[in-house]
Design a protein that fits this description.
Layout lengths: L51 H10 L2 H7 L3 H12 L9 H16 L3 E11 L2 E12 L1 E12 L14 H23 L6 E11 L16 H12 L6 E8 L8 E4 L4 H13 L6 E6 L6 H4 L5 E5 L22 H20 L1
Parallel strand pairs: 3-4, 3-5, 5-8, 6-7
Antiparallel strand pairs: 1-2, 2-4
Helix pairs in contact: 3-5, 3-9, 5-9, 7-9
Bound molecules: zinc ion.
The site of zinc ion has 3 residues, from loops.
């Protein structure tokens, strides 16, 4: 969105050099880079006319490493998503679903992370269906857990149209794989290999989508309904400080709605995190009540937020169609998401 779909009147970030049309854009913001001709396309003078000499001086004043450390690597998350989506359709009971499970399982086993597989049988309109949630744990020194979640499967009822869910399920799987990299690096820097705040658990949940085309309470959210009930029964739920859900936020044209079913203070915290990076325009400009994987946790009193962009393509025309492909997903959007998720974790740790 920053450049390709900038609208008159929208704020313009000075020194922003992202190119969302490039499938492999630079992973970091660069100050004063040669591509500054793209800088601020709204430029009615001002910033765009800053002399190259001044920009060169600015470049020298700000070490590249400083900006490199500040931003999440959206390009890497995009590459994870691309590989995952290349599996093809991932509908429950289909061959791609088994491959998707293998992809997630093998990734975390290879990296020696703490992987738990939560296999269960879902009662669905097509009978019992085996499903699997994956939980990856990064222990922290502080008692309590922050859960970051996404669903990873595609819709059973879209199984005949080569629907690959690049944004819906794919992009946020890539996002969480990228976040895992950051958390692993953070833990590796400490003596006891623990995060310095709360534990963070990544949840790749199954069966978010309904089996039939019509979404109902009993035909949807299979994985999270199962897990929330299980964690309520074994006491895990008491330790969860926040449940943060990512859904459909790889969209190049990022506009994340404010979900009125989410916990208000946690929404405010995400907004505060977005503000730190100047990302306010992507967040919470409109309000909707959204039913998604956070609901089973909301209903059990867990502070929860759904970070979702329900507006995908002109008049939402890419949503749940064969048009939901990787060319609609942007590395820049994943950078925005990753920055905000990491900052939200940092803010939660301060509480
Ligand atoms: Zn969906």
């Amino acid at each position: 969105m920053p450049f390709s779909s900038w609208k008159p009147g929208a704020p313009c970030l000075a020194f922003e050099t992202w190119d969302t049309t490039n499938p492999n854009p630079p992973s970091r913001r660069v100050l004063g880079a040669p591509s500054l001709t793209r800088l601020c396309l709204c430029g009615k003078g001002g910033v765009a006319r800053i002399s190259t000499l001044l920009l060169a001086a600015l470049t020298l004043m700000i070490p590249a490493t400083a900006s490199a450390q500040q931003h999440f690597d959206g390009a890497k998350a995009f590459e994870y998503a691309r590989q995952f989506v290349a599996i093809g359709p991932r509908w429950p009971t289909g061959p791609g679903h088994a491959k998707a499970e293998d992809f997630i399982r093998n990734h975390f086993l290879r990296l020696h992370d703490q992987l738990q597989q939560d296999q269960f049988i879902a009662n669905t309109p097509i009978g019992p269906v085996p499903m699997c949630n994956f939980i990856v744990r990064f222990p922290g020194v502080k008692p309590g857990v922050i859960v970051l979640a996404t669903h990873y499967e595609t819709n059973y009822w879209l199984r005949n149209i080569n629907y690959v869910g690049a944004n819906d399920g794919g992009s946020t799987t890539g996002l969480l794989l990228g976040l895992a990299d950051r958390l692993r690096e953070q833990a590796a820097r400490s003596k006891d290999r623990k995060l310095d705040g709360y534990s963070v658990w990544l949840l790749f949940d199954d069966g978010e989508e309904s089996i039939n085309p019509t979404w109902t309470d009993s035909d949807s959210l299979y994985g999270t309904r199962h897990l929330a009930a299980k964690w309520a029964a074994d006491g895990t739920l008491r330790n969860i400080k926040a449940f943060i859900l990512a859904d459909m936020i790889g969209d190049k044209s990022l506009d994340i709605q404010h979900d009125s079913n989410s916990t208000p203070w946690l929404v405010s915290l995400v907004a505060q995190a977005a503000k730190k990076f100047g990302y306010q325009r992507y967040f919470f400009q409109t309000t909707e009540g959204i039913e998604d994987d956070h609901l089973p946790f909301v209903q059990r009193g867990v502070p929860s937020v759904d970070v979702i962009d329900m507006d995908y393509g002109p008049n939402d025309s890419y949503h749940h169609t064969a048009q939901d492909t990787m060319d609609k997903v942007g590395a820049y959007s994943l950078t925005v998401d990753g920055d905000v998720f990491m900052e939200t974790i940092r803010l939660l740790n301060q509480q």
